[in-house]
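Feature request, filed as a ticket because there's no other form

It would be nice if the structure record came with a short human-readable summary line next to the tokens. Right now we just get the raw output. Example of a typical job, pasted below so the devs can see what we mean:
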Amino acid sequence: MTASTHHRLAILIGALACAAPALAADLPRTAAPVAPVVVTPPATVFDVAFGAKLQSDYNFRGISQTDRKPGVAGYVEVQGFDNFVYAGIAGYSVDLATKPDAEIDLTVGIRPKFGPVTFDFGLIRYWYPGERQYIDPAGVIFTPRNTDFTELAAKALYNFDDKVLIGANAFHTWDWLGSGAPGTYASLTAKWNLPFLEGLALSGELGHYWLGRVDAYLGGINLPDYTYWNAGVSYTYKNVTLDLRYHDTNLSREECFLLTADPRGIVSGSGRSRWCSEAFIASLSVDLTASSLGVFAPR
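Raw output as currently delivered:
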């Protein structure tokens, strides 16, 4: 190779070296990854929740409220500031010793939320319109003049990624069923949303009721405390839920009669009631909100 050839080759290599940065600058570049922007849906300032239920027996903390017969229920609840405050009304068909037309529950409270934990602090008024005091032909008084009462409620629910929900609840009244006896109920609840089928869940509750002494005109007796539990399976499809559940207490039939004044135990003279014993109950319910139907939805 001649000297002139070497000289020309050196000039070419130098030119390519100088042009390389310019060529690289003209090539398309891969954009740096950008973190996705998470858009939080706006809170619903105002909403209304409502629903209805058909059940084979209305069981309230282990005691039948419909004399072991089917019943219906419905509710409406007004919610404000993304369900932070609420007020509602619920109605249940009942068949009790005082023969009220229905049970009407009036509720008001707040539901503060801190991460996965939701609290509920409220007031519940149980109203039994049209009831009559039960007095037998011999003049023995078996029930209060009316069984309306008010209850304070406190609840906490921990949500583990919508898979497992653990709850703790406490309720207190100073005049249980209008009898003058104080009553405190506390319970633990658990729900497991099964992973293999959306909408299918197992759940249960374990609670205890502490009850005090009734007024003197009712005999001044000390009401029995008792333990209550339930366990069941539910399946929810969209807004409809089918629930199959076992309920039971540790009350004897004589203790159950003291708490319920079951007319069957009075008429038969047995002083016993089966309203507190084991029961398998099926229910079908539907639950909706106005916002889910496009009313009051955030825009």
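Something like this underneath would help us a lot:
Residues 1-32 have pLDDT under 50 and may be disordered.
The domain at 46-293 is CATH 2.40.160.160 (Porin).
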